[in-house]
Structure to design on (46 residues):
């Protein structure tokens, strides 16, 4: 039982790392998008 749990834990750790990388990439795009919108609001194209 403990051995199986250890393997599952290792799988979860590797999955979490992949998800973390994906989330970081998504956050970068999201932040860039928000910054772009704020820039449009603060400096409207006249």
């Amino acid at each position: 039982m403990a051995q199986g749990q250890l393997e599952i834990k290792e799988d979860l750790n590797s999955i979490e790392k992949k998800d973390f990388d994906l989330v970081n990439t998504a956050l970068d795009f999201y932040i860039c998008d928000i910054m772009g919108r704020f820039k449009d609001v603060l400096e409207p194209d006249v």
The first helix runs from residue 2 to 42. The chain has a mean pLDDT of 82.
